[in-house]
Design goal:
23% helix, 5 strands, alpha+beta, five-stranded antiparallel beta sheet, 136 residues, globular
Length: 136
């Protein structure tokens, strides 16, 4: 189901809680909503559709990827970036890392540890900020 995008900065600054298997339908909603906004969006966090759960969906080199309870385990090579957000107007500067290693649960709730770099790493970091209630 395509969900409306939350634009309330007060709500978006709340920290998300751990996801469970009960959040599998939410993951599909994130994928549907990401697809509906593919011309202007490459990642979504659950709070962007009104749910304070640690679930993100990103376009990883054009392939949709859902992560439950993602956490960055390693980050290297910081750089200054400028990012926009579907939930907030305009673009903002922030520091990101070119390469990150993330531990998360996949759609089967199996634990995965994977390294991402470049644009995909930047997208994941942006969505993890959302999970932590950090607005750039």
């Amino acid at each position: 189901m395509i969900r409306p995008i939350v634009k309330d900065p007060i709500f978006l600054q709340l920290r998300s809680e751990a996801a469970t298997r009960k959040d599998l339908p939410l993951a599909q909603d994130l994928l549907d909503t990401l697809e509906a906004h593919r011309d202007s969006c490459v990642g979504l966090a659950a709070n962007m559709v009104g749910e304070l759960r640690r679930v993100i969906a990103v376009s990883a080199n054009g392939v949709p990827l859902v992560m439950f309870n993602p956490e960055i385990r390693k980050a290297v090579d910081p750089f200054e970036a400028e990012e926009g957000c579907l939930s907030l107007p305009g673009a903002r500067k922030t520091v990101r890392f070119r390469t990150i290693t993330v531990r998360y649960q996949d759609m089967s709730f199996s634990t995965v540890t994977k390294t991402f770099s470049g644009w995909t790493a930047q997208i994941i970091q942006h969505e993890l900020d959302h999970c932590d209630g950090v607005l750039i």
